[in-house]
Amino acid sequence: MKFSIVLLACLFAVAFANEEADVVKEFREVNTEDFKYGYELTNKIRAFQEGHLEGEKTWLVKGEFEFVTKDGKHVKVTYTADDYGYHPKVEHSE
């Protein structure tokens, strides 16, 4: 469930831009007990996420995504997710 929330947060960055873009870089590695993926688009959207299973049911996830708003502000979100929830840190710059 928490993994889905984190994934949706990353997809939000793509939807927020509301424009078409080409993929500049993309990678993904999915295993039974860990994963990582990332992408970068021509419209300055970038995302990276990795996680690993700790114990039988607990995913520990960390990642970041960034984008430029329509008014030109750069937004970067770094986060972790664990049994205690989603923990984002948002940075804004001109």
From TrEMBL:
InterPro entries reported for this sequence: CHIT_BIND_RR_consensus, Insect_cuticle
Protein keywords: Cuticle, Signal
Domain of life: Eukaryota
Signal peptide: 1-17
Record carries keyword NADP: no
Stated name of the protein: Larval cuticle protein 9-like
